[in-house]
């Protein structure tokens, strides 16, 4: 979670926390990795599909909004970083009535190596990665670089 404090969505999280009444100056706290604990964070489950032309990731994020989710590709490391926050819906008064909690809510971060560690040497086209949030599932499509066919020529032996 150390990368979260520098993540582009970190300021959004800070703004939301301040709107919710949390003032880091008054409390002497800062919004950074040290503020994230197991109770308020989670690692979302992911399915990775490897088709002929792309990797497709399905990340379970029920209740997430697209403006609260970020996807970043680190080409040097071959790492896809998914980070954001999932809120429990309802106003403060309603949330006080929660009697059983089973859903994962809070800050999340997941870093995934592509291609997955299965020995494949496929390259990823980082410029054409797409992501959409559909029915509580973040769908990330990561195109593979098309392999060029090499022409084999017969060489006559003299």
UniProtKB/TrEMBL annotation:
Domain SHSP: 37-158
Highest taxon of the lineage: Eukaryota
Pfam families: HSP20
Protein keywords: Stress response
Region (Disordered): 15-36
Family matches, as PANTHER family: HEAT-SHOCK PROTEIN 20 FAMILY MEMBER
Protein family: Belongs to the small heat shock protein (HSP20) family.
Name under which the protein is recorded: SHSP domain-containing protein
């Amino acid at each position: 979670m150390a990368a979260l404090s520098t993540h582009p969505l970190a300021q959004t999280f800070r703004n939301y926390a301040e709107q919710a009444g949390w003032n880091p100056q008054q409390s002497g706290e800062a919004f950074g990795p040290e503020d994230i604990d197991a109770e308020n964070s989670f690692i979302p489950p992911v399915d990775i599909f490897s088709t002929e032309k792309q990797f497709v990731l399905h990340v379970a994020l029920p209740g997430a909004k697209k403006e609260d989710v970020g996807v970043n590709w680190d080409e040097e490391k071959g790492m896809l970083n998914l980070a954001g926050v999932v809120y429990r819906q309802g106003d403060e008064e309603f949330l006080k009535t929660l009697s059983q909690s089973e859903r994962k809510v809070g800050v999340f971060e997941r870093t995934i190596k592509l291609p997955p560690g299965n020995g494949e040497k496929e390259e990823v086209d980082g410029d054409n990665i797409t992501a959409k949030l559909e029915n509580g599932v973040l769908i990330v499509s990561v195109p593979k670089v098309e392999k060029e066919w090499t022409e084999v020529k017969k060489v006559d032996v003299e």
